[in-house]
Amino acid sequence: MSRAPLPFTEIPWRPPEQALSAMDSAPWAAFLDSGGPDTDDRARWSFLCLSPAETLDWHAGSLRRNGISIQGDVWTHLRDMAAASTRCPEAEDIIPFTGGVIGMMSYEAGMALEKVPSRHVSSAPRLVAASFEDVLAFDRHEERCWWISRRGHPTPELTSPTICPAPSLRFRPEQPRDIWMDAVRSIIAFIRAGDIFQANLTMRWVAECADGFDELAAYRTLRQTSPAPFGAYLKTPDFSLLSASVERFISLSRGGLIETRPIKGTISLGHTPEETARNSRTLAADEKERAENLMITDLMRNDIGRVSQIGSVRVPQLSKVEQFPHVLHLVSVVQAQLRHELDAIDLLQATLPPGSVTGAPKKRAMEIIDLLEASARGAYCGSLFRIGKDGAMDSSVIIRSMARSGDTLSVGAGGGITVLSDPMREYEEMLLKVSPILKAFEA
Known about the structure:
By secondary structure, this protein is α+β, with helices and mostly antiparallel strands.
């Protein structure tokens, strides 16, 4: 008896940047774009997803599925989308994502989960998500490429990218330095009063973009100047995310292994190998930065523990210095085993918004953040996620990113404030994080 053809095919290798040519005319598309050294397992795979079978978007006052207003709980609809369609076990043995849901959950969606009201109004959606049946997968390590199409669509035409100059943008900070530094002092006062141990204080830079703004050229510029293991370009008719995130939020394996990699603690990379080594030693010994990382690691242990098997939570890496483009960070790793009766949606609900961009205790830190920050965070400090047909998930913290709503682009940056924080040093660290993006688009 002849066997039906498999719904995936290996095709000749082409570099992932060629995927961008297929996104130009697509109203909905997602490019999960791993950058940096391809020897790093986190930067090995890239995925292009086109022509979603279903879409879901949630603004503060409305929920739409496939463009039609609907009732009900957003998480129920998201779980239903993630469960739809069939698996492809043959491809799953080779490729970590063969189709499923890709989406963005905003910081305000996380606030809703924690029942923290906000005094700000966000122009960004609380959630956008799409279910993809067609995936082009790139293995950067082995230089192999596959096309998976459950609907029998032909492989998309990919062409070499047209070299376009970076669009000029005039970003303006939403707060002057002195006002932001006063907010740092306010957080320190809250810490000394016993309200919190730490809070992540951020702000945004905003630029106007005309109707003819070349979003594709902007993303190409971002990925060239800030290659990152969790880079992404998520495109919808009303909202786009251009991300160069360096931080994994939560991953979930097919077998239920949870992993998060909280980043806290930052120093400049250095201009020479010797300077980089010296900065690495300085960061590793910095009492304030280590305390910041330890508190967030403990917060993530607590969040993951809500949905994990008893006794399975562990910390195999604590406050290790890792190198990224432009900066060095302290990175910890927390792992656990998901309870058998739960899934990726339960894991997201238990952990959003990411602990590394909130503070400890989490809910009180979020209340103070909302009081002191000048605007809604929107997509920034939310999470970009993918949930596969096999139930596995990976996600990033939305940092080092540009979010577009209408004719406005915003970029956020910030840092963890502890009782040992120096306001000027915190301001300079925030600029260190955001300056590569701002400089790439200077007029």
